[in-house]
Amino acid sequence: MEKTVPYLRWRRAVERRTPPDCRIGDDLLLLRQPRPDMEFETGPFRLDMTLAIYLRQGSCRVMIDMVEYTATAPCMVVVMAG
Prior knowledge:
The protein is mainly beta. The protein has one helix at 10-17, and strands at residues 23-24, 28-29, 51-55, 59-64, 67-72, 75-79. The longest helix is centred in the N-terminal third of the chain and has 8 residues, at 10-17. A two-stranded antiparallel sheet has the order 1-2. It has a two-stranded antiparallel ribbon with strand order 3-6. Strands 4-5 form a two-stranded antiparallel sheet.
């Protein structure tokens, strides 16, 4: 039996955990660095938003459509909704 991948419930988490000076309503969220309390989900999920990550230094690993990518600075990773 196939299992449906849930959408990330990010709006609630942003409203609860992010100060108003770091966001413009629910439309734009700006963070200088990852915050441990912004962990949303474990396991696969879908996005109903566009996500952009800009790396000035270092590297990160991201999994998109179950394929792992390594991003190394300087770079920008853009993930479209869905």
